[in-house]
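Researcher: Please translate sequence to structure tokens.
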Amino acid sequence: MSVWDDLPGQSAVIEQLRSAAEADRPTHAWLFTGPPGSGRSNAARAFAAALECEQDRRQDRGCGTCHACHTVLAGTHADVTNVATEKVTISIAEVRELITRAQDRPSSGRWRVIIVEDADRMAERTTNVLLKAIEEPPPRTIWILCAPSPADVMVTIRSRCRPVSLRIPPADDVAELLVRRDGATPEEASYAARVAQSHIGVARRLAHDEEARDRRSKVVGLPLTLRTVSEAVVAAGRLHDLANDEAKSSSEQRNAAEKQQLLTALGAPESGTLPASMRSQVKQLEEDQKRRAKRSVTDALDRAMIDLTTFFRDVLTLQMGTGSELINEQIRADLERYASNTTAEATLARLDAITETRQRLGTTNVAPLLALEAMAVSLL
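Model: Translation complete:
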């Protein structure tokens, strides 16, 4: 087993990163780009592990078995800092803290590695703060930035980073990974990889979480229930509730665990009123969790929009007679009936309506339910 095993369908990228990890002086700043599901974060962690690998022979770096590889992949290596914001943006204060940490010499490994998984979530002012640190890094520091595309990062940053471009892996490769690493059955893995459109993280959740599969089925089946404006409004409400349930299911247990860990670390009493100094820290944690919850709902809505898009993508495939594999093969009969009662032009217009709604939800302060209601009406 090596650190590269979790990057299905990325042989060219693996070769590029393996070669860099073997070099005496690898490039000091990298920009990993690729669409959601391409494995940007996995690739960044694998590269960091290969850089810190304890193997003496260069061609063996990234072994996946040494202590350094294990700790990097587990997120506990002292010289590797991984930032994956769960808020809407990465703040200037967080970036300044990273810059300060980047000045330290490695404590045990070859390099001090800073991974920023959401480099596209930095405002221009924040990016300018980071720019100088990337232009003039300490000799043993390596920056790895991740973003969906080069255009999502300011050109001044982009021009100073070595690019690594990832692609969506084939569904068969994702299914094989789910069987080999996560213990999914071949049937579960094949279904999850197909409907997740090879998004590794989504496929893993669908393969093991029956509630997630049920929520997705309800989202994809919504167009089949739309006949009147009132039904469209009701369907929008259901879609809104499904997205909130998805976000809630992934955060409730985590929030409770975080609060308990904080109280334990502070030495809080088991009962009674908390001291004022502890209350302020608990309040700060709760505020952070609220900001994270907003991001979780936005992400869940966007995922629901993507799932809804697959319905009309399949309808258009049938209408155009392309012969391509359907993403939602399990409801082929319903898709064929729907496709026969509308036109390809209408299907394209519905796809445009979903795309516009995704953009509005992601870039404006529109009330989510109102945006979903307007979209649902346009799908009639």
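Researcher: Any highlights?
Model: The mean pLDDT is 87.
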